[in-house]
Amino acid sequence: MRPTLLSIHDVPFLGDLYFHSYTVMMAIAFVVCTLLAVRENYKLEHPFPITPIAGIWIALAGRVGAHAWWILQYRDTYEPLWGRKIHLYESFYIWHPGLVFYGGLVGGLGAAMLYMIVNRVPLLPVGDICMPYLPLGIAITRVGCFLNGCCWGRVTDVPWAIAFPRGSHVYKAHLEEHLIDSLATASLPVHPTPLYSIAGLLIVFFVMRHAYKRPHPVGSILLLFPLLYGAMRFATEALRGDSPRPYMAMTLSQVVSLALIALAALAYLYLYLYRWRVREKDPSTEDEEESTA
User: Fold this and answer.
1) Using CA of residue 3, residue 5, residue 7, residue 13, what is the dihedral sign?
2) pLDDT attached to residue 82
3) Which residue among 134, 199, 271, 276 is least enclosed by CB atoms within 10 Å?
4) Start-to-end CA span in the chain (Å)
5) Is 284 exposed, middle or buried (CB count within 10 Å of its CB: 0-12, 13-18, 19+)?
6) Is the pLDDT of residue 266 over 80?
7) Which tens digits make up the pLDDT trace of 66-120?
8) CA dihedral sign, ordered 232, 233, 236, 239
9) Rg value, the chain, Cα
10) Closest CA to 203 of 101, 260, 132, 290
11) Phi/psi class of residue 44: alpha, beta or left (left: φ > 0; alpha: ψ in -120 to 50)?
C-alpha cells in the first residue's frame, strides 16, 4: 500500500508537492490510452478527424462525473466523517477525493459524444477504434486503487487475501464495524478486489483487440465493452466490502452492470435486425453505412 507515490519537498514558490498513486495512475491511463487510440485511428487509409485534445475533455468530464456519482452513492456514509453536508455541486471540485467509475463513464462518454458531434465524427466506427483501450485504461487506474487501499474486498481466508496496515481505509472500516480493536496492527484479510478487476479488465482488453483485428460489423466492438465489462464488474462487485447493498442485496454498481448488459444486448439485436442483416444481403451498402454512421 502506497497512497502517495512520490513527494517533493521545499519546491520554490510551491512548497511540498505530493503525487497520489490513484491520481498518477489515472493520468497515465488517460495519456497512454488516448495516444494509442489516436495512433490506431491514423493507421486507417482515411483517418477520422480526432486528436489527443479529445482525451483532455474526456478526462475532465469523466472526473466530474465520477465524483458526482460518488457523492450521490456515498454522501450519507461520509457526511458524518467529514462533519458537514456534502453537496452535489462539489463534483466540480476535481481535486477532492471520492470517485466511482460508472459516473466517470457517463461523464467521459458525454464529452466524447459532444466532441464527435462538434467535429462531425461518426460514432460507431470511431467507437470501435477507441473502446478497446477503455478497459486497458481502467486496469491502469485500478493499480492506483490497490496502492491507495480503496475498493477493498470482503473479509476472507483465501490464501491470497491481503491485510492492510493501520490507518488504511480498510483498517478504519473494520474498526468502525468492531471487527478489530484499536490495538490491531492491520485489518482483517480481505479479497484483493482491485487485483481481480485488473486481471478481468486485461482479459476484456485483449478480447476486444482481437475482435477488432478480425472482420466485424460497424459498432460491434463498441458494444462489446458494456457486455464484457458489465459481466466482469458484476462478478467482482459481489466480493467488494466497501459498498452498501440496498438493491435486493446488490450494490448500485451491480444494478448498473445488469442494465449495461441488457442495453448492449438490445443494441446488438437492433443493429443486427436493421443494419447488419442489410449488409449481409447487399455488401455494397457497407461503404455507405460507414460514411453515414
Assistant:
1) negative
2) 64
3) 199
4) 46
5) exposed
6) yes
7) 888 888 877 766 666 566 777 777 888 777 777 787 888 888 889 988 988 998 8
8) negative
9) 21
10) 132
11) beta
Please name the residue ranges forming H helices in the chain.
Answer: 21-41, 53-82, 101-118, 123-130, 133-148, 169-176, 193-213, 220-237, 252-271, 277-281, 285-292
For the cut 50, the answer to whether the pLDDT of residue 288 exceeds it is no
How confident is the model over 225-254, as pLDDT tens digits?
Answer: 999 999 999 999 999 988 878 888 898 889
**How long a stretch of residues is the chain?**
293
C-beta of residue 162 within 8 angstroms of C-beta of residue 189 = yes
Distance, in Å, from the CA atom of 87 to the CA atom of 18, rounded to the nearest integer, reads 26
The better pLDDT of the pair 70, 132 is held by 132
Q: Is the pTM of this model over 0.85?
A: no
User: Which phi-psi region, left, alpha or beta, contains residue 184 (left: φ > 0; alpha: ψ -120 to 50)?
Assistant: beta
Amino acid of residue 240? R
d(CA 108, CA 71): 17
DSSP state string for 160-217:
T-BPPBTTSHHHHHHHHTTSS-TT-SBPPPB--HHHHHHHHHHHHHHHHHHHHHS---
Distance (Å, rounded) from C-alpha 203 to C-alpha 190? 23
* Number of Cβ atoms within 10 Å of the Cβ of 37: 23
Number of other CB atoms surrounding residue 177 within 10 Å: 11
Q: Are 193 and 233 in contact (CB under 8 A)?
A: no
**Contact by Cβ (8 Å): 66, 99:** yes
* 178-201 pLDDT, tens digit each: 999 988 999 999 999 999 999 999
> Could you tell me the pLDDT band of residue 277, with boundaries at 50, 70 and 90?
low
Residue type at 81 in one-letter notation: L
